[in-house]
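Re: weekly structure request thread

Next one in the queue (649 aa):
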Amino acid sequence: MMSPLWLLLLAATSALRPPVNRPGTALNSATLPLPQQEPLRDATPATAVRDDGAVVLGGDTVLEPARSRRRGATKLADVETARETARNGGCFLSFSLRKAKSKVDVDLGLLPPGRILSIARNKRWWITPAFGEVPIESQAVLVEGEEDDDGLRTYSLVLPLLAGQDPARLQDGRHAFRCAVRGETENDRIRLIARVESGDPNVRAREFDGAAYVAATKATDAGCVHALLEKAVQAIAQRKGSFRPLSRKAPPQGMVQGLGWCTWDAFYSSVDQNKIEEGLRTLAEISSVRRLIVDDGWMRLDRDTDEDLNLSGEILKADEMVNPDIYDDSDVLAGAKRRFAETVGGMYAKHVERAPADSFGVRLWRLLATTILKGPLVHFFDESTDFTKALAWPPEPHPSKFGGEAGFTAFIKDTVKSEYGVDHVACWHAAAGYWGGVDSPGAEVLRAKPTDQLRKVEPAIDWDPATLGGVKTPTDPPGINKVYDELYATLKRCGVDGVKADAQSGVGALGDGHGGGPRAVALFVGAMEKAGSKHFASDDGSISVSNCMCHSTENLYRYFDSAIARASDDFYPREPESWLWHLTACAYNSLLIGQVALPDWDMFQSRHPAAWPHAAARAASGGPVTVSDAPGEHDAEVLRALALPRRSR
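Done, posted below.
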């Protein structure tokens, strides 16, 4: 009989190895071959962008000018002025306009025939792989060309980037623009359109230095794409100076080593000291937990949400209650309100949330939500969710749930670390402090204003609490720096070792009227990493800051010091159709994310129908292995296959 460890390794192999590709099959998650790591055969051409706009690398045309003009888009031949020579198999595309603009579409031309893998935003927070197409807001496009007479294929890559008038201004976000690409089908070919925009109509430019990077190489199979992406990101980092690749950073080992437990799925934001201790106690009976993530709910807010009415967790998890015992339904009125909200929420999920962006249901709901239903929606968000609440000032642990700073300090040091042997404790916070911001001196209420493309990706942003009610935040660099410094200093005094910085890709939508989305992200990420380096740095130079909900280009290409990031959207325990796709998304997203940060494949539950393949995948990923079990809801075999029994102290 196989041991659980061998079963785990077998499951890892099965889960991560797709079937062998057969000629003529369509490109999808089941047929894309596992990279075989053939030696990279680098092409070094003498020229890159030709006068007609064709991009030629290694003798192969990787972007071919379309014969027709696309209405509303400027052709590459008309705006590409840098004429840069390709280096190391790649080149940057820079644009120059006759008139300064805050937003421009550039027709990059036709992709070569072949199989296509895109990595695109599917929500404001997250990216996901797409096969055979280039969706709107794509952040990476890979094409496997047709096989030549020598058995080689050309693998080409397009990466939209952050662009600016010059690298110096790009580094602090001033006059920075973000680029994303989308594909439009034309005679069985895909025309690639680049959208370059600042997110603020007042931030305009004529020159866009390095708006995209194009690279190509020849190889026998797709194993070359790892090296292709690695070299591309290294070249981008050297040119831009706004981030460092993972190869030049140290991942925070305290956030990676050993089995971790996160409180989110077990308690949502109703977490408290007693619940955490109960979870640690039941886990300690089975295995050794070396890391603890205290998720949403540990901090004092400007006002609390009634826990009997709070639906924040269900909304964020797009789910039923995972653990209904965390709520008290003895109040008949509260129970009726909850059941009504869940019924309406189910109808909304079916006819609006999961419907196409241009569907009648979405268009009708947008009209209602921004007119006659706006008031009731704002009231609902305020009464029944945490999303309108702000971090209280000065920052401190919740007084009734954790006893303020003194109580939280004693709990972390004496109970969590001394009694239960946890080595590393991280606390959650949103990028703006909390979902609704921070109540710090000088904070302003900013209403999110997403770009047109982001509204197509996620229509719900139009009736999001950040759009309808706004987010309270400072807008000046000293004010933003002060929020992060005081928050991290407080946690450090309590014995906390690091942070999970969430909801980061929502910051870009707050940039309208304040320098644009890339500028806003530069300020917030810069403040986060500065405070992280001050309060949570290790001797090896790493900082214990884990990035989450952070997959926009303006975030990924800002991580200079932080070196860990979530690989995909959440693991949804009650949505069976998402269980395999979660692993697929993590694997393919890691091709891009893994060049900038160590991918974190998210928490999962050990007592779950899909526990074994998810445990195996995380064990094989090289990133953190974290469970989110409710107290007592554990599978001992799964946990013991992942970690040794609890160590004696």
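Confidence is low (pLDDT under 50) at residues 1-45, 319-327. DSSP finds 20 helices and 24 strands in the chain.
Next request, please.
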